[in-house]
Amino acid sequence: MSQLLYEGKAKKMYTTDDPYVLRVVYKNDATAFNGQKKASFEGKGRLNNAICTKIFTMLQGKGIPTHYIDTISETEQLVKAVHIVPIEVVVRNVVAGSLSKRLGVDEGETLERTIVEFYYKSDELGDPMINSDHALAMELATEEELAEIRRFALSVNDALRAFFDAAGIVLVDFKIEFGKLKETGALVLADEISPDSCRLWDKETHEKLDKDVFRRNIADLPETYEKLLKRLEDVK
């Protein structure tokens, strides 16, 4: 019997008959500002599922291990069960969002060096930014795991930048999470990669093709995600 294991802001996770496999259901909900802004959009779950499927399939084709197994419906995936490492990893190529406010640098400035940031995964604390020393002191991960996470994050960045560039899109920044497979303990990319967790700008116009259209009341979210999906479907 399938049981609800976890419900987050954008998806639900259920058990399956296999203890090492979970079923993910993408929801139509959208949130921003740590859940302070909420809305529901018809079709959002389908769009996130399709975009995430496209991205995870591409990454696995590049040799990057992920928890993704298969897409089984318009809103559902099967994934490998993991123990999530309680660190959110943000990779930044262009100044935007909180980085612009924190450093007083204009949004849109390309960084000379890609920045990798760690955040403690805690809704209660608002996911505060931490460094490697914090992570080690709190025993969130080992030194070896942190180094592997950083290497993985940069490899994911390289693959995503090329993928989006082929669609005429700038990968501004993105958030990812990692987990250790329950079956083997191996570290893999987990959670999701979607316009909910990335900033994506049109290369020519800088039109936003991500959840910032909802955060900033710029455009219709489903229409934006449909436009993004269509552009990604044209990438070979």
UniProtKB/TrEMBL annotation:
UniProt entry keywords in alphabetical sequence: ATP-binding, Ligase, Nucleotide-binding, Purine biosynthesis
Catalytic activity, reaction form: 5-amino-1-(5-phospho-D-ribosyl)imidazole-4-carboxylate + L-aspartate + ATP = (2S)-2-[5-amino-1-(5-phospho-beta-D-ribosyl)imidazole-4-carboxamido]succinate + ADP + phosphate + 2 H(+)
Keyword Ribosomal protein set for record: no
Coiled-coil ranges per UniProt: none
EC number: 6.3.2.6
GO terms assigned for molecular function: phosphoribosylaminoimidazolesuccinocarboxamide synthase activity
Gene3D superfamilies for the chain: ATP-grasp fold, B domain, Phosphorylase Kinase, domain 1
HAMAP family (alphabetical): SAICAR_synth (MF_00137)
Protein name in UniProt: Phosphoribosylaminoimidazole-succinocarboxamide synthase
Annotated organism of origin: Sporolactobacillus mangiferae
Gene from which the chain derives: purC
